[in-house]
Write a structure and sequence with these properties.
This protein is α+β, with helices and mostly antiparallel strands. It is 41% helix and 20% strand. The chain contains ten helices and ten strands.
Length: 258
């Protein structure tokens, strides 16, 4: 797969497109600042815009009741919002919002996006490969929440966020983590203390700093890695551990000259 315009955007999915396919989308993009809690997709509402993140992390959240939202998917500069559009639906029952904020996203009108997809089979194929990687991620999350203890679930989620941000600091609260890993706040607090005591992280109010990623991966075990491998197989580079063993710099797109 080619990476024709890495200077134009840090979005890995867009960088995986051919020059011709990117050219179908690029004239219609506008770059927008994104902040934490910005909503990209409203649940059960017609989708008007599609966002390719260049920074930050977004959550796709299912709400069983007003007090019990649960994350069912996560993406950052590896992905795009509103995958339901590619499967023939103009809306989603799930809300998508920025969970770790700060940065920019490329926005395109949904109608123009779908028109470009209809014009190019190769563009459609690449985007559907991304849908496949998200389906694998959702399945892995289900299995993880069913069979892994809270500490392992927390380790997996921190690794997934770490893959999608620059640096080692992730801004978040205990309540927010609980929603992401389907756990009560008290369980999250205890688990954070366990990880901190083992030297994997440093936790303080409103943020977590990754200190020992290798041990975090050991704790996450087989809950982490399958969706990341699927993404690399189908689309392109993703993940810090992958970067450590390859000559390509995955986590810092600023390697390209301006």
């Amino acid at each position: 797969m080619s990476h024709p315009d890495a200077v134009y955007t840090k979005n890995i999915l867009l960088s995986a497109l051919s020059a011709d396919d990117l050219a179908l989308l690029q004239p219609h993009f506008t770059r927008h600042d994104i902040q934490r809690e910005d909503v990209l997709v409203k649940a059960n509402a017609p989708i008007e815009h599609v966002y390719f993140l260049e920074a930050g992390v977004a959550s796709i959240v299912a709400t069983m009741s007003p007090s019990r939202p649960t994350e069912v998917g996560i993406f950052g500069r590896d992905g795009v919002s509103a995958t339901c559009l590619l499967l023939g639906s103009d809306r989603s029952p799930h809300q998508t919002f920025i969970q770790v904020g700060g940065g920019t996203a490329l926005r395109i009108d949904a109608e123009l996006y779908l028109a470009a997809v209809r014009r190019s089979e190769t563009l459609r194929t690449t985007l559907l490969r991304y849908v496949q990687s998200m389906l694998v991620q959702a399945a892995q999350s289900t299995a993880t929440n069913a069979y892994h203890r809270i500490e392992s679930r927390l380790a997996r989620w921190l690794l997934m966020c770490h893959d999608r941000v620059d640096g080692d600091e992730i801004a978040l609260t205990h309540d927010f983590i609980g929603m992401m890993i389907a756990a009560e706040r008290s369980g999250v607090t205890v688990s954070l203390h366990i990880l901190e005591g083992a030297g994997m992280i440093y936790s303080k109010r409103g943020r977590v700093i990754i200190r020992d990623r290798e041990t975090l991966e050991e704790l996450a075990g087989d809950s982490y890695g399958v969706p990341e491998a699927e993404y690399r197989h189908l689309i392109g580079p993703l993940g810090r551990s992958y970067a450590d063993t390859n000559t390509r710099n995955i986590v810092n797109p600023d390697r390209h000259p301006k």
